[in-house]
Amino acid sequence: MKNAIRKYAGWFCALLGLCMMVFGALRGEVAVVFTKAVNICLECIGIG
Questions:
Q1: Are 30 and 24 in contact, with CB atoms under 8 Å apart?
Q2: pLDDT, tens digit, for every residue of 5-22?
Q3: Against a cut of 0.70, is the pTM above it?
Q4: 8: number of CA atoms within 13 Å, CB side?
Q5: Which of 5, 29, 42, 44 could be 48's S-S partner, Cβ–Cβ 3.0 to 4.6 Å?
């Protein structure tokens, strides 16, 4: 019984994470994260 609960808990967490990623992508968060990542990289290199 406990193994079945762990199995389904893992699938539930994976599905929940996937749903959150889709929700964030639909809200336009991908562009925000990409912009922040580019700014951080440019600061580390010293170009920006």
A1: yes
A2: 888 998 999 999 999 999
A3: no
A4: 4
A5: 42
Q: Which residue has the tokens 């336009």?
A: 28
In sequence order, what DSSP letters do the residues of 1-48 get, joined into one string?
-HHHHHHHHHHHHHHHHHHHHHHHHHTTHHHHHHHHHHHHHHHHHT--
> Is residue 44 scored above 90 in pLDDT?
no
Sole residue written with tokens 């889709």: 22
- Distance (Å, whole) CA 17 – CA 35: 22
Phi and psi at residue 20, to the nearest 5°:
-65, -40
Report whether 7 contacts 13 (CB < 8 A).
Answer: no
